[in-house]
Amino acid sequence: MPDEGIETAPLKMEEKGRVPLKAKMALADLLSGEKKAITRKWVDALVDSYPSDTRRFLRKEKSQFSNPVGQTYKEEVERLFDAFINDQEQQMASALDGILRIRAVQDFGPASAVGFLFRFRKLIREALQGAEPVNGLSSAFQEIEEKIDRLLLTAFEIYAKRREKIYDLRVKEIKRQVARLLARANLICEIPDVVPDPGNHETE
What we know:
Layout: H1 21-33, H2 35-47, H3 52-60, H4 68-85, H5 89-105, H6 110-114, H7 116-128, H8 137-184
């Protein structure tokens, strides 16, 4: 679940031309049948962004205690996939946040942090190759493409908020460290709550 202090806004699904329900259901069924293959390759796209030694560890270590990053990626990618297929906007944003808070802390740049979503677009296209023709399927696919575009925009927004929070925490920690150093060097002193008015002198 997202950390406190970070609001994950739901994706804004704009109303386009109506897509035949039969086509939407056919597309959802087709993608659901490919869930295991798609999510596995999707996790691979996340892991591939790491150096070779880290990649080997993330793929080899299956324990959630020894490899919490790999386990989180697997769980959140599956959650994101299910939410995407079922048009669950808030769940999509929440799953994205679960992934991106890790990548923000690990100092991935914006493009590297959200690049796994471009891989998702390719995986969707691969899964639809050879699909049986259904009336309205092309429009349903176009709707999927537009939803991925919105997913990307939401991902950039979440990543930016995560990085902003990290910068704020680092600035506060630097200020605390500097204050401690100055205090040790007797270069700062406590300021009294009430400062006497130099113009207000009592006469005996």
